[in-house]
Amino acid sequence: MGLFDPFRRKQPEPEPASHSGYYSLHDGLGEDPAYDEWDARLDEVDRRLSGEHDSGGTYRLQREPRGAERWWQRAYWRDRRKRWWAGRIIAAALALFVLLVAWLAITAPLNKSLQPIAPPMVTLLAADGTPIARNGAVTDEPVVVSDLPPHVVEAFMAIEDRRFYDHWGVDPRGVARAVFMGVGGGSTITQQLAKFTFLTPEQTLTRKAREMLIAFWLESWLTKNEILARYLSNAYFGDNVYGLRAASMHFFYRRPENLTVSQAAMLAGLVQAPSRFNPVKHYDRAERRRLMVVDAMVAAGYLSEAEAQRLRPPALDVRLKSDLPTGTYFADWALPEARERTSGGYARQTLTTTLDSRLQSIARVVTGRPELRGAQVALVAMRPNGEVVAMIGGTDYGKSTFNRATQAKRQPGSTFKLFVYLAALRAGWDPDDRIANTAIEEGSYRPKNSRERYSESLTLREAFAQSSNVAAVRLFGEVGSEAVIETARDLGVTSALAEGDPSLALGTSTMSLLELTAAYAGVAANRYPVDPHAFAREEPNWWDRLWDGSDTLSGRVHSDMEDMLRHAINQGTGRAAMLPGPNFGKTGTTQDNRDALFVGYANDLVVGVWIGNDDNSPLDGISGGGLPAQIWKDFMRQAGGASGAPRANPTERADPGGPVEPQDVPELEDIPFEDGSRLRFEDGEMIYSTDVEGVDLDLRVGEDGMRVDSQRFEEVRRRAEEATRERIEREEERMRERYEAERQRLEEQER
Questions:
Q1: Which residue ranges traverse the bilayer (predicted)?
Q2: What is the C-alpha R_g of the chain?
């Protein structure tokens, strides 16, 4: 049976001869009319026989006339001719196409083609107005085709789509030329707009089909000039520049309405391969491409040969340069929120963050320690309300953009004991209540204290200060994992916490340093949870506070918790972080010294410090009470307790352009530097303001020479001497600790 046999109409069987297959046994009976009637009936049976056998070898009777069949029955469709099927398939395809175009017209966001295809440039400023990072594409306002000189439009049409005004989104000639001659990609300007506005750059037949469908849809809802304007306003020209207006300003520093023929031809040539033909890096390639565009304009009749001969290579005028980095650890973290705050459109925007450039500079200095010996370090400093004022995500952003303050999930070690002891206080325990500090010798989990130091019992205050592991696990068992996890959740911890696991008391769960520091900020502010943020927020009024979902600790619980945090610094494992004034904090060291942390607060600053290796290998002699505590103390001392009032909502200004360009500062007389220093001019004097050892110092240069405030200079000298003396004392203390440790080791060996 052939492939299409089921679709062919059956030809009627030839009518058999009279009495076919029938032989009279009684010739003498004559021509009785009863035999004729019998023969007619047999002929009817023969006509109804299909002539085909079923699986059982018997004849199958021919189907009933078509009028008796229904459309859901198989027999209704079986004997249709191929022509009948082909006509209906084509009609169905056309109907489906119309339905798809109508569906796109109703549901697809047509205004998406009016939006930039890449996020526009956003410049982030520190709280004092110092630019810190610039990220995003260089964009500008859309162009209007009627405002452009004819040669600008003709240059793009000549090289990209000469028949733009003659086709309906898809050019059959262009497709045929691309298929049979291998010239060009066959995509019209409308298809290119559909591709980079609605689709991904994948090279597949499915994507090409969708591209054509969207092109038809665009042509049915937009005018040709609207399509061309949207194409020119979104095309990529290289150097992170999108759109004709931004490209003309970037490469020639002139508006597109004022482009010459030669300049327009060079820009039109960039669209095919922006990086390869970038005139800033490869001017010779861009010039050869420009000549191809000019030849195409001549071939299309837009230019005469004489006009083309008179054209000269255009000179570049690139002025818009930026020395700002595209990202920092803080900027990368703040950028998603910045995008949410910016309004849609092509305009560049500037946002002021909560980052304190002075504190960020201090953080960079105190974390640049040779004692790290190749380990990574992270630091987060925030106000108790969650405003992040400094962030270090690693030792070198240039080598690794991975933010160890916000992205890394590491064990918090004993800093997690905050939640265990706070849960106990909320359950009615008192800092003076005692808990066993003997070794745990039963059960499957048997934690040990550092250096295996045990005693009969300790008060909760002493156990927290000495960071007793066995006491924390016993307290965890008394309070219950549910209460501890609930306390952590209340303080804003969202990372996974294993319920019923006693090792959770020692910080075996993982979380980010930012998450952990925010939890301590909740205790510092006695208002939780604290949401770390990079942009200032308005302080809520009493009504908003009533309904914002925040909570507070009771006066007794908060006072007792701060008492234990203070005891941990002044008399416990965090003595290396002790400050002259009130200070609160906790050390943390994970198993085999893989992570070392110190988190605490003082002087309206909550700071978390982490040290570790990216491969999770053990640290070389670094514990939470050592280098992290010292970094924390140095940061707090140099910060000097300076606290800035919450700023108003971020302002949006024109794009600064660069760190020392006039747009960055209100006036030319006030110029900020990256390290937080400033240079200004007042009454004919040049004043250089900087910070030395936490003292603001002004260096004045005028007609009378150089002057400096003697009292402030003396304060700087005094603080420098104090810093030197403290470093000497710290080194002596370190030597005494090493001597004591060595003496104890020798005594243990002698035993």
A1: 85-106
A2: 41
- Give the global pTM: 0.68
Q: Which residues, listed in sequence order, are joined to residue 685 by a DSSP beta bridge?
A: 682
Structure tokens of 380?
């987060």
Structure tokens at 86: 């082909």
CA dihedral sign, ordered 350, 355, 360, 363: negative
**Residue in the structure block whose two tokens are 């006693």:** 502
d(CA 574, CA 747): 26
CB atoms within 10 A of CB 2: 7
Question: Which tokens sit at 657?
Answer: 């352009």
Q: Which residue has the tokens 């000495």?
A: 466
Longest dimension (CA), the chain: 158
- Which helix (H) or strand (E) is 470 found in, with range? helix 469-479
Beta strand 678-682 pairing with 685-692: antiparallel
What residue type is 55 in one-letter code?
Answer: S
Euclidean distance between CA atoms 338 and 346, whole angstroms: 15
Residue type, 637: R
Q: Is 733 helix (H, G, I), strand (E, B) or coil?
A: helix
Name, in order, each residue with C-beta under 8 angstroms of 324's C-beta and a sequence gap of 6 or more.
Answer: 123, 131, 132, 133, 134, 658, 659
What is the average per-residue pLDDT within 454-465? 95
Interacting residues of 130 by C-beta distance below 8 A, sequence separation 6+: 357, 659, 664, 672, 674, 676
H or E stretch at 601: strand 595-602
* Region of residue 31 (phi > 0: left; psi between -120 and 50: alpha; otherwise: beta): beta
> How far apart (Å, rounded) are the C-alpha atoms in residues 640 and 507?
31
Q: Within a 13 Å sphere around the CA of 584, how many CA atoms are in the beta-carbon half?
A: 22
Residues 573/561, Cβ–Cβ less than 8 Å: no
How do residues 262-288 score in pLDDT, each as one tens digit? 999 999 999 999 999 999 999 999 999
Tokens of 198: 């609605």
Tokens 């994992």, located at residue: 481
Tokens 């291998």 sit on residue? 182
What secondary structure letter does DSSP report for 30? Answer: -
Q: Which residues contact 133 (CB under 8 A, 6 or more apart)?
A: 123, 124, 324, 325, 326, 327, 328, 330, 331
Cα separation, 54 vs 157, in Å, equals: 67
Instruction: Give SS3 for 597.
Output: strand
Amino acid at site 334: A
**CA distances to 51, 171, 221, 419 from 296, in Å:** 70, 18, 30, 73
CB neighbours of 110 closer than 8 A, spacing ≥ 6? 221, 222
The answer to whether 297 and 104 have CB atoms below 8 angstroms apart is no
DSSP class of 257: G
Quote the tokens at residue 166. 């003659």
CA–CA separation, 439 vs 470, rounded Å? Answer: 7
Residue 671 has phi, psi (to 5 degrees) of: -120, 120
Place of tokens 């303080």: 491
527 alpha carbon, distance to own chain's centre: 29
For the stretch 691-717, pLDDT in tens is 555 555 566 766 666 666 666 666 666
The type of residue at 663 is: Q
**683/686 Cα distance (integer angstroms):** 9
Determine the Cα–Cα distance for residues 638 and 214; give it in Å rounded to an integer: 60
Say whether 686 sits in a helix, a strand or coil: strand
pLDDT digits (tens, 9 = 90+) for 603-613: 999 999 999 99
* Structural contact between residues 281 and 249, judged by C-beta atoms closer than 8 angstroms: no
Q: Are the beta carbons of 696 and 689 closer than 8 angstroms?
A: yes
**Residue 652: its pLDDT value, please?**
39
Helices (H) and strands (E) in the chain, counts: 23, 19
Exposed, middle or buried by CB within 10 Å (0-12, 13-18, 19+), for 673?
middle
The amino acid that residue 73 corresponds to is: Q
Which sign does the torsion angle of CA 239, 298, 164, 212 carry? negative
Instruction: Give the separation between CA 616 and CA 404, rounded to whole angstroms.
Output: 12
Q: Give the whole-angstrom CA distance, residue 672 versus residue 666.
A: 11
